[in-house]
């Protein structure tokens, strides 16, 4: 079934959609006048009339309405980030709706709300946990939450590739005392989302994550952010994920259907519970 485009009814709101489309170069003033004439003759809404006349597409109208409601998403053609960031590029897709459902469940969990900080962990698939962490961070930012995404996978980091942030200094460099908070990069295109990449791949990730400086980094970040999401290496890589869960206080587990074993997932859960962290739930990916 084709989705219905929801457009405000009032003349003021129609005018604002028209101005947004005009400023984006999607339509001309002459076309706005033509659309207004059709509206007066038929009673159609602005977007419906504009589409019927062939001046804009469904996506053009969705984007204009999104801007009216301060909802940030990107044009797939801009190439700013990896297209696997579906929350940024395909906000109306089924999988992003499921991410929003996950976000709602986390918000409604009193323990998650209290912590405001959780690690995303897997048994043996770090690309899966990175995908969930990155897209979940985007949907939290789209909610208007000040969101900090930290790549604490200091062994095989993925977030710098997903967000195309290069290979400059990041978390490892801060923990080693080589850099400061200037490593945190704000992504203005996606609401109030900031990303701290892993930075230089170190020879001693566990030793760095054990340092007091990591605890201090999180303590300083919490008052400035509504949500902190930490991507982690998989359990098979070592005890990093346990260290991270202990620091964060909560964890979301990620499994792949027909690949992740129940036994391994239970082991991951148990090892995180031992750290005192709250296991908030499991995300199952196809």
Structure characterization notes:
By secondary structure, the chain is of the alpha/beta class. 47% of the residues lie in helices and 13% in strands. The chain contains 14 helices and 7 strands. It has helices at residues 11-23, 29-42, 46-52, 58-68, 86-89, 94-108, 110-115, 126-142, 159-162, 171-175, 205-210, 212-221, 240-248, 262-274, and strands spanning 117-122, 147-151, 185-187, 193-196, 227-231, 250-256, 278-285. The chain has a 7-stranded mixed sheet with strand order 3-4-2-5-1-6-7, sandwiched between helices. The protein starts with 10 loop residues before the first helix and ends with a strand. The model is unreliable at 1-9 (pLDDT under 50).
Attribute tags:
14 helices, 7-stranded mixed beta sheet, 7 strands, 286 residues, alpha/beta
- Determine the fraction of residues in helical runs and give it as a percent range: 40-55%
Unreliable sequence segments: 1-9
Instruction: Give the rounded overall mean pLDDT.
Output: 88
User: How do the helices and strands follow one another from N- to C-terminus?
Assistant: HHHHHHHEHEHHEEHHEHEHE
Spatial gap, N to C terminus: 23 Å
Biggest pleated sheet: 7 strands, mixed
Strand neighbour order, sheet with most strands: 3-4-2-5-1-6-7
Q: Strand content of the residues, in percent?
A: 5-15%
Radius of gyration: 22 Å
**Helix and strand composition category:** alpha/beta
- Total DSSP helices: 14
